[in-house]
Design brief:
The structure holds three protein chains of three kinds. By secondary structure, chain A is mainly alpha-helical. Chain A is built from eleven helices and no strands. In chain A, helix 3 packs across helix 9 and helix 7 runs antiparallel to helix 8. By secondary structure, chain B is α/β, with parallel strands linked by helices. Chain B folds into two domains: 153 residues, 3-Layer(aba) Sandwich (D-Maltodextrin-Binding Protein, domain 2); 91 residues, D-Maltodextrin-Binding Protein, domain 2 (3-Layer(aba) Sandwich). In chain B, 35% of the residues lie in helices and 23% in strands. In chain B, the strands form three sheets. In chain B, strands 6, 7, 8, 9, 10 and 11 form a six-stranded mixed sheet that branches. In chain B, strand 7, helix 5 and strand 8 form a beta-alpha-beta unit. Chain B is globular, with a radius of gyration of 22 Å. In chain B, 43% of the residues are buried. Chain C has a single domain, classed as MetI-like (MetI-like fold, Orthogonal Bundle), CATH 1.10.3720. Chain C is elongated, with a radius of gyration of 21 Å. Classes of the chains: A mainly alpha, B alpha/beta, C mainly alpha. At the A-C interface, helix 1, helix 4, helix 5 and helix 11 of A face helix 3, helix 4, helix 5, helix 6 and helix 7 of C.
Chain lengths: 257, 284, 210
Amino acid sequence: MSGARQSIRQPIQQSTRGPVSLRAGVWLALALIGAWLVRNFHWDVVWRAAPFLLRGLEVSWELAILSVLIGLLTGTLLAAARLYGVVGIRHAAIAYIELIRSTPQIMIIFWVYFGVPPLTGTVLNPWPAALIALSLIASAYLAEVVRAGLLSVPAVHRESAYAAGLRGATIFLHIVLPQALRNMLPALIAHIIMIFKVTSLVYLIGVIDFFRAAMLVNNRDFAPYAIYLTVALVYFGCNFVLSTLIRRFDPRYTLSA
Amino acid sequence: MNVRKALKRPTLLACLCALAVVACMVPRAQAENTLDKIKRTGVFLAGVRYDFPPVGTVDGSGNPVGFGPDLAKAIADKLGAKVQYVQSTSANRAPLLLNNQIDAEIGITTPFQSREQTADFTIPYAWDSTTILVHKGDDLDPTHYGPPKKVATTQGSGNVTVFKRIVPDADFVLFQEYPDAFAALLNHKVNAVVLNRAATAVVLKSNPDLAVGKDINRDVWAIMIRQDDSKWRNFLNWTLQELWASGDYQKIYVKWFNEQPWFPMWSQYGLQPGIGGALSCCGN
Amino acid sequence: MDWPVIWQYRAAILQGLAYTVVISALAIVGSFLFGTLLGYLRLTRHALLTEVVNGYVEIVRNTPLIVKLFFLYYIAGLDAFPSGLVALIVHQSGYISDVITAGFRSISPEQAESGYALGLSGRQVFVFALLPQAARLTIPPLTSQFIEVVKNSAVVMFVGVQELTFETQEISQATLRSFEAATVATLLYVTLTSVIVGGMTSLGRRLRWA
């Protein structure tokens, strides 16, 4: 009981981490043991398919980064509509954000590619459809991130700028937005991670991203253990790099909405 | 009134409004027939499989190769057009066709009567057989794989219908890709995989302790095209037979299946009268 | 637009919906319990325990859900439904543990200290002072996490569980009415998430007595 009393009494700022060398040593040992355990998998298949897989990884990253950029722009507009807009626009923005966030991402991709063309009569190729779908998803989530960022700038900044004689757009662009962007950086990177994971769903419409490339190689050469382990390791690697980036900006950041 | 609740209402309201708008829209009418369109644009959009060797797969750089792509190229040459490959899967082959994103699907589509409600098919362009894949030493007779045994195949495959004809109460586990079904078989999650004989080559190479069972039926593949497009359908039917008559079809088939085709094109008694100048059947 | 044909498949849709609801509900409960446990373990001062939990959460958060699912189904040998459930629980609990930890950490230390000053024991402080405040703080992020569970539940179709998204594909392949099928499925998913949001909101209101 006294142990629990101790832990709650003191404010806990950072998790206690042991010396770096010890942790690195433990992980390295685990990695070596793991490598020895999987030595019999068909790694030659992965090796031969490496250029194709790398191209797929490129596509995954392209889609993720482009959709995040587009999503950031449109998300900012949505957040502004939600914070400063008139009643009708505000509710439209909220409706859109809630709709996209409540629907499984695979449904949104399905919709954009299969559902929209018969209605509008246009022909949509897989890659543009994937980009549009991912941008829609990104914009809804990033709208919330931007809104939180904008709200995190203390009102007094806006008020002092107003008192100093600046007006609306200038205040927004030069005072509020830069600070908001800096505050929302961890959340932004977290959502890049999320979108990167969602890109694997574009297999449904035939875009050859990293996951689909791995599946095609598996279809051709059948080496599921090696291939899926490679997929896991690559995704882990990419995500780990990104989360480390988050931690550098804000050690206490957590992926909560 | 709870503000949160009020904010949630616009979502469903927005959905219903969108539905109402959309329900009033009429689908775009088919304007031009496919043959004219290809002659005009100079591009033949061919839907091919990327996930079913040897009918369609990808090479090391990600380009589609296989029996389907080669056949599509031969058809494009006859048209005097360029071929552009579009990846088709069991899930998206019909929407791709109906949305004019492909002009023909040259894959592993069986021309079920039910499918002809929404698409049209050419004459059969290749034949295969449906069979089961089991562990070595297991029963090779497909009719013995009713419950409690489990069988696996992919979602959307015609194999479900075919197998249910001989085992009406079959217990199916449906995966998204064949390798997942193979992995399930290897891990003893299912007792057999129902698939085309052509699909067994890949997994047998790396797993010699699997065996192929008896054929269930002959499975036929046809090229899938849009409905009511007779000029295009005729062209494809005649081109297939002309390729057969000139021997090009057989060359492509041998390249990918390592054997001569064991089926005829159009009829076992000969090609359609008029192809290559022939007037009638039966040896004339 | 051909809506009547979807009505013919209502049995399949309902069956898929049933699978989705059951696996989502179980996964929500399971991941909440497991995530809370992990989050709580991280609040203690044991360096090794914190390290282990951190490492586990890091691995879980950075690997795709489908890889975990395949690992459980093919390598660990679980059946389809259990492997889907465990994969969902393991996946979401990584995120929920972060939410719980953040929730507790954001309570200012004076709360606990006032409790001790008033003579309450450690357990009483936790249950009556910290828990209600933490619950109120974590309800919004937990709501999003639970919605994520519902959306992620579609992944179990990769091991053969015939849930709602699977049935949507089945219908759209059989009838070629992808638009209508997708619309119906989307409405059902939105309804599910609205139920979750409504439930969590009323839960949050009831906790305001603290």
